[in-house]
# Entry
Amino acid sequence: MAFSGGLDTSAAVAWMRERGALPYCYTADLGQPDEPELDQIPDRALQYGAEAARLVDCREELVREGLIALQCGAFHITTAGKTYFNTTPLG
# Structure
C-alpha cells in the first residue's frame, strides 16, 4: 500500500496486520521539501507491522509525466480562493 507515515496509513497498516494480513508498504520520493526525514518513513511502516517497506524514487518519472501534462494543455485554475492544479482531463 502507499504509505505516507501519517496517522491514517500507520493505523491502516496496524489494523491489517492485526487481522492477519501481510501489508507491503511503498513510500514515493517526489522531491517533497516538507519531509526532511523521508528516508525514515519505511522504518515507521515496519514499526506498525508492515511485512516489508521501501522508498521508491519517483522524481524523474514525476518530471516526465508533468511535462507531458503541460504539453497536453494541463493548467490550473483558482476558484473560491483555492488553486486546483492540472484541472484539464488528460488522455
About this structure: The helical segments are 7-18, 41-47, 59-71. Residues 60-91 form one domain.
